[in-house]
Amino acid sequence: MAVSLVVLARRPSDWDQDRFTTWWRGPHADSARILPGLIAYRHGAVTLDYDHPEAPAWDGHAVLTFADRQALDVALASPEWAAATRQTKGMGGKRIVLVTDEVDLLADGNGDG
């Protein structure tokens, strides 16, 4: 079963949305996309926060997918992970990081994955 690392992030207070998205999809993505075992990597820039439409609580999310938990654990122990996370130290943003087991609810049309 695929396992994903899901990250919700808010930009540093002195960055605008465009700068944050450009950084995330550029230099930060360049560091993360080389993680060992990574089989999918998606990023979404928040365009609307339904719960906070005037001031979004989050600016973006990333989903990094691995074949299984063992592959994720190898990636998290790697020098590539250490380098990617060093980029975020001291930025002053906020994040939530979740590990999820994924099931494709559209795969066979009945939700059994």
Structure write-up:
By secondary structure, the protein is an alpha+beta fold. It has a single domain (3-101), classed as Alpha-Beta Plaits. It is built from 3 helices and 4 strands, in the order βαββααβ. The chain has helices at residues 17-32, 69-76, 79-86, and strands at residues 3-10, 38-45, 60-66, 94-101. A 4-stranded antiparallel β-sheet has the order 2-3-1-4. The longest helix is centred in the N-terminal third of the chain and has 16 residues, at 17-32. It is globular, with a radius of gyration of 15 Å.
What's the helix and strand layout?
Elements: E1 3-10, H1 17-32, E2 38-45, E3 60-66, H2 69-76, H3 79-86, E4 94-101
Antiparallel strand pairs: 1-3, 1-4, 2-3
Largest sheet composition: 4 strands, antiparallel
Rg over C-alpha atoms, rounded to the nearest angstrom? 15 Å
CATH class division: Alpha Beta
Distance between the termini: 10 Å
Q: Roughly what fraction of the amino acids lie in strands? A: 25-35%
List the helices and strands in order: EHEEHHE
